[in-house]
Structures are given as C-alpha cells and as structure tokens.
Design a protein that fits this description.
By secondary structure, this protein is α/β, with parallel strands linked by helices. α7 packs parallel to α10 and α9 (about 210-230) packs across α10. The chain contains 15 helices and 10 strands.
Length: about 350
C-alpha cells in the first residue's frame, strides 16, 4: 500500500542546534501512527516541518506521493520582471534626483504661471542621457537584478506555507491550545472552513442570497462536527468557558473543518484525566473510521499503546526505532531511552 505521508531524511537545523537529524517516516492511509520520545526529542519540530511552519534544512516531505509546493508560473515570472523594472526606475530616479529636479523645476517653472508639465517630463530623457552610462544604465541593471532576485527569494520562502499544506489536505492541532476564547464553539469551527468558503467580497458585503445559503450550510456542517466530537450541547458557549479536555476536542473539530485526509495531533491527551483520555481514544478511532489518517504525538503511553497501529520513537532528534506497539514495548533500546518498564506494565 502506498504511503499517504512520507518524510524523507528530514533535518532541521537552527544555527548550531540540530532538532531533527535525517528523520524518515512512512505513514500508510487509514492508520493511526504515533510519534513518541522524551521532551526535546524533536517531535513538534518534525510536525512543524511537515505542516510548513518550518522549511526543512535538508530532506523532503511528500503527501500522497508529491511534494507540497507552489509552482513557478508565468504570472510569477511576469511579477518578478515587474518588480525588477520598478526597482530599476526607482534607483535611476534616486541617483539623478538633483539633476532631474534642476532640469524639470528650477530651469522651467516661473512663479505665478502654470506649471509646464510637458516640458518637465520632456526633460527627463535628456537629463538621464547626460548623466552618463555608469550612473544611469549600470544603476538600472544592478537594481533590476537585485529586485528580481529579491522577488525570487520571497517567493521561495512562500513555496510551502501552512495555508498551502492545509489546502492540500493536511490539518493539525497544537501542543498549546490555540482557540478564539471570546467566540462560541460554532464560530471557532467556522474559522477552519474559511478555505472552502466560495462567496466573494461583494457577496459577503451585500449579503446576497447565495452568501446566506452558503453561510447556513457551513453553520450546519460546523454543528455536525461539534456533534462528532460530543460538544453539540455547548455550541453556543464561548470557547474560553470550556474545560481543558473539551477545548482539546474543539481544536480537533476545527482541524476537521478543513476537510483533511491526514490530521496531525500534537499531544491531544495532555492535561486530560483518565476518563477524558479514554473518550479521546474513542474519538481518534472514529476519526480514522471516517477515512482520515491520524498521526499523533503523545506522552500518555496508555493512549499510544491502546490506539496506535505503528509507533516511531525519537531521541535527540533521531529516529531510534519504529514498529508495532508490541515491538516497541519489547525493544530494549526504546525502554532504556524513554518508555521504562513501569510505564508499560
């Protein structure tokens, strides 16, 4: 079975710190895949590299067999040339500002008379010609190159951004809950649907019938997702009023609102009591049953061993093991590095 997510030799360096070193993972469609390891092992950094928050220093991330990247289009080529041209014009005008001012204003304008626009503009070519090659054409060529290269650098920095990853079909939650506390639960879930909202600016402004129908359809879908995570009874409540475990569920509902085929959960059981953790395990299984592949980071070994199909273990940024829960449980390297005999009992 082909992998839905492939992490190929991903390395993340921050100056002299290596957070991930040649980490490779292969996640099959429809499985629950766990990434575990001690604090500082590089688990969240790996998630950030997968979801476009970081660009890997080395290696690549493939989703459904393809890298998630913006393609360089004809429109991008035209924009790059336009930025270079504007940079060239700006540089030439800046270098010759004094001469242009003298030729266009001082030598032509007479106080009390209409400004001679035609003569002022007509003086520009002659002034630039008299300025000479080095102060005009060389500056123009250099500025064009710098502007074009700057546009390319900005474009490359935007090649794999979180919004592009989300549109491709990958959603995630965060280790630290990031909800809109003053908004109610339905509104929080609607935020995740933004990329699927088709009504344009003017339709939203004048509230056309099509906009109202689409908004109502999305509100119904948001309520269905709240039902899915067992929060429908609190749909009208502000997010900040929810207990911690329910806030985790709300964040999962918002991630599901993006219509992902793969969801990454960063410590979803953190702060939960045993009963809430058991309910979370049921929810993750339901997510998998709905056709969504799940990758999770988790420290609660009962959750990890109870729901995972396969587990990868990280230590000091390196993958030291991968296998089924039973294989990881019995791997002496993993036990010594992280799990401990008592935790797995």
């Amino acid at each position: 079975m082909s992998a839905i997510l492939e992490v190929k030799d991903v390395t993340m360096r921050f100056g002299g710190l290596v957070a991930n070193e040649r980490v490779s993972l292969s996640v099959r469609p429809g499985e629950i895949f766990a990434v575990i390891g001690p604090n500082g092992a590089g688990k969240t950094t790996l998630f950030n590299a997968i979801t476009g928050i970081y660009e890997p220093t080395e290696g690549d991330v493939l989703f459904e067999g393809r890298p998630i990247r913006r393609e360089w289009t004809a429109a991008d080529r035209i924009r790059g040339l336009a930025v270079g041209a504007v940079s060239a014009v700006a540089a030439v005008l800046a270098l010759n500002a004094t001469a242009l001012w003298t030729a266009a204003i001082n030598d032509r304008y007479v106080m009390g008379e209409p400004f001679p626009w035609g003569g002022a503009l007509g003086s520009v070519p002659a002034t630039l010609r008299d300025a000479g090659f080095w102060t005009t054409w060389f500056a123009a060529i250099a500025a064009f190159a710098v502007g074009r290269l700057a546009f390319g650098a900005i474009w490359r920095a935007q090649r794999r951004t979180p919004d592009l990853v989300a549109r491709a079909g990958i959603a995630r939650t965060f280790q630290n809950i990031r909800l809109f506390g003053e908004m109610n639960l339905v509104e929080n879930v609607l935020v995740g649907m933004d990329q699927h909202f088709r009504s344009g600016y003017w339709a939203c402004l004048v509230r056309t019938p099509g906009f109202r129908r689409e908004r109502e359809r999305m509100r119904r879908r948001a309520f269905e997702l709240l039902q899915f995570v067992d929060l429908a009874d609190e749909a009208a409540e502000p997010a900040r009023s929810l207990p911690y475990g329910h806030q985790r569920r709300l964040e999962i509902a918002r991630a599901l609102a993006t219509k992902p085929r793969l969801i990454l959960l960063d410590e979803p059981a953190a702060g939960m009591n045993p009963a809430e953790s058991a309910d979370l395990m049921k929810l993750i299984r339901r997510i998998r049953e709905s056709g969504i592949t799940v990758v999770l980071i988790e420290h609660d070994m009962k959750v990890v061993m109870g729901i995972s199909d396969r587990i990868a273990v990280l230590q000091y940024g390196k993958k030291i093991a991968e296998g089924t829960p039973e294989a990881i449980r019995n791997d002496p390297v993993c036990v010594a590095a992280y799990l401990g005999t008592e935790e797995l009992g």
